[in-house]
Amino acid sequence: MQWLDENEQKIAETLIQENSDFKKIYEEHIDIDKKLNKFSTKPFLTPEEQKTIKELKLKKLNGNDIMNKMIKSSIISG
Predict the structure, then answer these.
(1) For the residues of 40-71, what is the DSSP string, one character each?
(2) Quick count: other Cβ atoms within 10 Å of Cβ 24?
(3) Average pLDDT over the chain, rounded to whole?
(4) What's the rounded Cα separation, in Å, for the pair 9 and 2?
(5) Domain locations in the chain?
(6) Cβ pair 22, 16 in contact under 8 A
(7) What is the value of pTM for the model shown?
(8) How far is residue 45's CA from residue 43's CA, in Å, rounded to a whole number?
(9) In angstroms, rounded to a whole number, what is the distance separating the alpha carbons of residues 39 and 41?
(10) Which DSSP symbol is given to 2?
(11) Cβ(71)–Cβ(12) under 8 Å?
């Protein structure tokens, strides 16, 4: 997770192992990245594909927000 500092990265790795909700969101994040990368190789996108990309990016952003909150909560609690 490139957007995290070193301490947050360690906490995220622990959460992946110990928190099933965090792990699920993280795995969805990876899956969305793969889907977005497939679109990036296309020279032309249909309106439907453009809509799908927007939806995927929004879902990824929401997942990032949730993971960041979980990481911050873990830092605060302990």
Answers:
(1) HT-S---HHHHHHHHHHHHHHHHHHHHHHHHH
(2) 12
(3) 93
(4) 8
(5) 6-77
(6) yes
(7) 0.84
(8) 7
(9) 5
(10) T
(11) yes
Percentage of residues in the chain having pLDDT higher than 90 = 83
- Residue 5 has a pLDDT of 85
* Torsion 15-22-36-4 (CA) sign: negative
**Residues of 44-59 as b/e, b for ≥16 C-beta within 10 angstroms?**
eeeeeeeeeeeebeee
Task: Report CA-CA distances (Å) from 8 to 1, 54, 62.
Answer: 9, 27, 18
- Asked if 10 and 41 count as a contact pair (C-beta separation under 8 A), the reply is no
| Structure tokens, 28 | 């969805």
Structure tokens at 64: 């990032």
Helices (H) and strands (E) in the chain, counts: 3, 0
State both tokens at 71: 């990481």
